Amino acid sequence: MDTARIEAQRRFAEAIHGKPSGIISRTVRLSWTPDATVPELRENQVEVLAKEFFARALAEMDKEELPPVGWEADALANYRVELADRLALLTRGSPEELEGLLDGAQTSILARSRLRAEPCNPSYDLLKNFVRRALIQLAAIRLARLDGDFSDNIGDRLFRPDLTDNRSAPVRQSSATVREVADRYFDEDLAIRSVTEKTSLKHKALLSEISAFFGEQTLICNVERPDCLRFRDVLAKLPPNFSKSYPRLSVEEIVAKNEGGATLAWETQNNYLTMLVKMLAWAKGERLVSDNVAENIKPRVPSSTGQRKRLPFKTDELSRIFSAPIYTGCKDDEHGHAKPGPHIIRRSRYWLPLIALYSGMRLNEILQLSADHVRVSANGTPFFLLTPDMELKTEAAVREVPVHQRLVDCGFLAWVDMQREAGKPDLFDDVPESKHGYRSDIFSKRYATFLKSISLADDRRSKLCFHSFRHTFKDALNDTDAPEGEMDEICGWARSKKTGRRYGTGFSADRLKPYVDQVAYDVDLSHLVAHACLPLG
Questions:
Q1: Domain 315-533's class?
Q2: In a 3-state reduction of DSSP, which class is residue 235?
Q3: pLDDT tens digits for 379-399?
Q4: Largest CA distance in the chain
Q5: Minimal CA–CA distance to 15: which of 75, 94, 92?
Q6: Could you say which of 29, 154, 269, 415 has the lowest number of CB atoms within 10 Å?
Q7: Contacts of residue 470, Cβ cutoff 8 Å, sequence gap at least 6
Q8: What pTM, to 2 d.p., does this model score?
Q9: For residue 21, which of 71, 61, 48, 73 has the smallest C-alpha distance?
Q10: In the sheet that 374-376 helps form, which strands lie side by side, from edge to edge?
């Protein structure tokens, strides 16, 4: 698991479990036990220490992606609920309920400052009160950022920037161009964050389009709010993948050409506007502009929050998928996968949809499976073992997922054994990696092409993709008698306040197997069961 992913998960866990990101220094031990020789905290030091504490935490928050890139709607909803609960606790909780949150933060502050303070001492009590106010403000800012509001409205006067501090460093009439600011923002801020190469390329692409819109040679100090509002309005009229589809046209020409056509999703428009806000906020901090003229500008289309981006497959759609030539006989499993022929070829195109349908695993999880990831418990339960060394979405994705009996009937375990005996431990090496290092990038496109060969309703086609199998499985799992905790475990969702999994220890495959086997679909797969006796292929 790469350092960037570990760091992102650490910040998520800290936000959920009461250790605010950036509050606990990585260089300071929490077990701070000062002796009598250590200077005692004085009341006139408390305000300064609290403000420094708040500033450090806010600076760490600035390094995060909020909302986190790639998170599913349910994960974001859970995250938002946890933060709202925490804010309510900080605001209205009793001293006993707040003790763990506040004492840990106070300890880190005193350790960093090499000071001591005795409980019930006026300085100690004052620091505790200021720390609580800081945590309330930080939680409110984090919640606002999750909703795309990066204005960082600081309601607590204690932590508002001292305006007198800015008078000594006035904003100069900058000669920097939009392109220069975008490049500097990327090099001096975005590039030093712990993000994947894929995210870094996304940042570059957003900044490139922003620069092109405002004019690369336009002085950044000449960008006004009406320009930003026009940018918002143009985004609402651009088609999906406009830069790839019309590389030689200006945005105005693309808008004219797309009149009445499909437009960018809310998420995409929000990504552009959020990047613009962040870039201008950085420029303001560097005193290249006097004001963030893009502040609080939102997309002109309704937010998709609460709407389902991907739909589950219906029974008739599953029937059409599993009666396609790849499952009944095809020419080959490459370009001829949708053409009738004599071959049953059991590789990625054949197995991945079945595994997803009967396990709910994510595409990237399945594509990383080796023969060693398919195991049998001491009690005889076959299961997929998702391990920490894999590239997983969250720490909660480390889990055991039972192999559904239907997969066994279709010969999946026998096929894995044949792969192992043939010296092919990597189960799906027929799918190459993309330039970003992800096989899922390639296969998701392949499956989108496959779905074009299937008869699907026009009003559903745009919301059906490989990930729809995961939604289909979850809906079927809801119809079983599996408790909520077990369902979360099977699907690899974090459960911060529930019993069971706590990052790395969860329910065994033996316990989960009965619930997985209850998942059923009214789809005839008898022809796939018959394939179990076929030779390797």
A1: mainly alpha
A2: helix
A3: 999 999 999 888 887 778 899
A4: 85
A5: 75
A6: 29
A7: 356, 360, 361, 362, 491
A8: 0.55
A9: 61
A10: 374-376, 382-386, 399-402
